[in-house]
Every structure is written in structure tokens, then in C-alpha cells.
Amino acid sequence: MLVILDFGSQYSELIARRIRETQVYSEVLSYRTSAEKLRQLNPKGIILSGGPNSVYDEGAPHCDPEIWKLGIPVLGVCYGMQLMVQQLGGTVERAKRAEYGKAAIAIDDPTDLLTNVEDGSTMWMSHGDSAIALPEGFEVLAHTENTPCAAIAHHQKKLYGVQFHPEVVHSQCGLALIRNFVYHICECEPTWTTEAFVEEAVREIRAKVGDKRVLLALSGGVDSSTLAFLLHRAIGDQLTCMFIDQGFMRKYEPEYLVKLFQEQFHICVEYVNARDRFLAQLEGVTDPEEKRKRIGHEFIQVFEEESKRLGPFDYLAQGTLYPDVIESADTNIDPKTGERVAVKIKSHHNVGGLPKDLRFKLVEPLRKLFKDEVRKVGRSIGLPEEIVRRHPFPGPGLAIRILGEVTAERLNILRDADFIVRDEIKRHGFYHDLWQAFAVLLPIRSVGVMGDKRTYAYPIVLRCVSSEDGMTADWSRIPYDLLEVISNRIVNEVKGVNRVVYDITSKPPGTIEWE
Ligand code: XMP
């Protein structure tokens, strides 16, 4: 295992993912993790991430200085390298010229960390400070035009630092450098494979659950579906999946999912029709946060009631993923206090978001995985591509794509429009190029003309975005012809809609969903 100590960089998770791509397990821990804790964990290497601070800022995050004496190889990246230099007695100063973007590195020592890294290759830089005097025993491995110490090493102690970001895709030989650190310097073996994970997870689930019963809230997304497959493989019919139909699903989705799981996968699914209850909760509600809260609350109510009816169950299976458990996920460090600050934009609700105080014990076999790893696991245990590659769908469903009050009539309008969007996007072969493609119904009406008659009806917003992880997104440049087909079909086939508009806002400043 390798450990990444996070100093608040937006790339910390990316480092962890890159290392896992080399089939070595890695974890992100807080920069406050003590040397003693690290000694117990006994990783084969430590990576210090980048971060938004300057090492000489008052209150800037520092790691336990005992870490340098553990005898474990360390790679400092950007802020991590500057911290290594400063804590070991070198000097870091504000650079004469900040360096952002690509820079060509000139290699001074092509061995060790920089084996197979081409001289002159471009690496991604993002720093305002630079190391200007190295601590004793260190030497320069590479420099750039503006940065005399772009890569450094203390060979004997196996301490390394790079000013650039080898983890980002724009860094040409970044992966070669990471592989050198992982395989040659830390001497890790490539044992983190999907097959090994599945084998181990199945063993652990069996050992934990024994002959007890497990309940799982199935949403049909890739996480809960993979979870269902994994548990079913481990404990067969001791697993019960509960599918709560809150009435905000896409057209034909509940029938499709229940049939798929029961008939094709032979996994027991209890279908709960709670449509009326959820709709009643949203009567007269227009505020987006209020909608989200009421839906989340009602979900828990229904879940508790139904689990009593179907139970008793000893365990609840949750699709918690690794980004949910990283202490530092989505947070920033306040340079003054060193505390982490997260700003809440929306109250997310999903089936994994059940409160911990439900009287179940938890089984969370996916908690070590990143989303792309969940997909790989899903695939390897037989989940069909149509589930593995489906677009994300928010827990509160169509209710947060109907602006204003959610009514049965408006749900039908949106459901029909949404069906056309998905149908045409798939038919034109764009489905897998997009992160999401969906319709939003607005609470206003505009004038149109159809068959020589005046219409006064709702507009539909078409939202198609591309994204890597949903954190940032760009609106998709889908062809005009496709826009035209979708618009024509919606206006002609969906009663109550007379206009279609295309959302051309990226995230930020927009969000992907409208509520
Ligand atoms: P936003 O709208 O915040 O969405 O840009 C980012 C991604 O998250 C999805 N999303 C949700 N997923 N429960 C979920 O499981 C939610 O409450 C929720 N809200 C938004 C959204 O579809 C997009 O992929």
C-alpha cells in the first residue's frame, strides 16, 4: 500500500487513482496523520500532495517531522516537495515568475525517479513558490527554464520531490515517473486487481455476515447494482433488495429494473410502490432544498416501514465509495486556521445516504473503491454494459428537474420529454460520449403557434453535458441536426410543451441539475 498525505490539493484523489492504475492499492489520509500512525500502517511509500498554501504562510499545513525518519520512501509533489525542502533545512521562496501550465523539463540525472522520462518532455506546472536552496544530501534531477529545482532527490534516504504534477494527463511522462516511484523505489507488487478485489470482498462479506440476512436499497445505478451483484455472489438468497418507487423515475425504469434483476439475474427484489406518498409530500413545495429534504426524509420513512415488514434484517448493505470516506474530499484548507472548509451547494440524496442510526449493522464492501473501479468490478462479475455505462441519475429523480411544484401532470410531461431525449441521443450514437443528457421542465409558459392556433404552454430545457466526474462539466456541442430532431419530437409528441431551449452553461458557474 502507498499513502497520500493530502494538503488540500484538488489533485490528491487523482494521485491515488493514478497509483491504483499501476495496480497498487493507495489511500488518501490527512496531512495531520502522525508518523506513529504511519509506522503502524506500514506503507511501502508516502506521497505528499500539492496544496493551495505557501509553506511559509502562517498556519500553513505541515506534516509530522518524524515522517522523515521513518525510512519509508517519500515523494513530495509541488507543495509536498516545498514542504520537504523547508522541513529538512532548505529554502523556499516566492518565485520570480509563477509557472502555470506546461513546461519542458531538462533532465540532469536520468536514473532512478526519472528512468524512461524523456528529456524535454512537458510536465504540468502550477506554482508560485520555488525551492532555491536544497537541504543537505539532496541533488537536482531536473530543471526547467524558470525552475532550477524541478525534480530533486536524496538517493540514499529515498526522499524525492517534483515541482510539477506527474498525476495530471497533460504531464507527458507523468505515469512513467509514478511507475518508477511505485515499482522501483517503493518496490511494490502489482496486486491490486479487480479479480483480487472481488475474491477478497466475497470472502470478507461471508465472514462478516455469516448466515444472517442483508437488506439493500437498490436504485438501479451502477453502485447499488454492483453492490447487489457482489452480495448475491457472496451470500445468495440471504440478500433482499428493496426498490422504492418514489414516482420520480424515468419512463419504464421501475418495470425494467425489477424485471432485469428478478428474471435475468435471479436476485430477489421487493418492489415498493410509494408514488402517492412522495407526491403528497411535495404538494405546494417549490423551494429546491425543501424538495430535496422532504424526498430524503420520506425515503427513510418508507425504508424503515418496509424493512420492518420484510424483516427482520441484521445488516444493511450500503454503496459507500472511497471518495465518501476520504476525510479531505471536496474541502479546502483555510490558511489561517488550517481547518477544512466545505461549502454546501445542494443536499444530496441517494440510496446510499441512509442515516447511520438505523438499527442495522452495515456492510460496505465498495468503500475502498473509486467510481471507475466500481465499474470494473461490476463488469467483472457480470453486470451488463447497459447498467455499467448508464448515465448518473440523481436520487430525488425527476422531482428536481421540474422547477416549481411537482404534480402528476407535470411529471408525465417531463417523463415523456425525457424519454425522447434519451431515445434520440442513443439512436444517434451520442449516449456514451455524454456524462448526462436530460430534460428540465420550467414553471413558466410562452406563446407559440401550432396548426394556425395560438398555444400557451411550458418550455422544456435540454441539458447535455460532458464531464469526468460531475464536479466540473461543459455543455456538449451536439450536432444542430440532433437538436432539431429532439426539439421537433418533443413539441409534436408531448402535450403541454410548445418550445425547447438548449442550456449552454458550463459548471461552474451553473450546476448540472437545475435544482
Ligand atoms: P450538480 O447538479 O450538483 O450535480 O452539478 C452533480 C452530479 O450529481 C448528480 N446529483 C445527485 N446524485 N443524489 C445523487 O445521487 C442527489 O441528490 C443528486 N443531485 C445531483 C447530478 O445528476 C450530477 O451527475
Automatic annotation (TrEMBL):
Residues annotated as binding ATP: S219, G220, G221, V222, D223, S224, S225
Subunit relationships: Homodimer.
One of the record's GO molecular function terms: GMP synthase activity
Role noted for this protein: Catalyzes the synthesis of GMP from XMP.
Pathway: Purine metabolism; GMP biosynthesis; GMP from XMP (L-Gln route): step 1/1
Stored PROSITE patterns: GATASE_TYPE_1, GMPS_ATP_PPASE
Gene that encodes the chain: guaA
Domain called GMPS ATP-PPase: residue spans: 192-390
Protein name: GMP synthase [glutamine-hydrolyzing]
HAMAP family in UniProt: GMP_synthase (MF_00344)
InterPro entries reported in the protein's UniProt record: Class_I_gatase-like (IPR029062), GATASE (IPR017926), GMP_synth_C (IPR001674), GMP_synth_GATase (IPR004739), GMP_synthase (IPR022955), GMPS_ATP_PPase_dom (IPR025777), Rossmann-like_a/b/a_fold (IPR014729)
Keyword Kinase part of the UniProt annotation: no
Catalytic activity: XMP + L-glutamine + ATP + H2O = GMP + L-glutamate + AMP + diphosphate + 2 H(+)
Residue numbers annotated as active site: C78 (nucleophile), H165, E167
Top EC category: ligase
Signal peptide extent: none
Keywords tagged on the record: ATP-binding, Glutamine amidotransferase, GMP biosynthesis, Ligase, Nucleotide-binding, Purine biosynthesis
GO cellular component: cytosol
Domain of life of the native organism: Bacteria
Keyword Transmembrane assigned: no
Catalytic activity, EC: 6.3.5.2
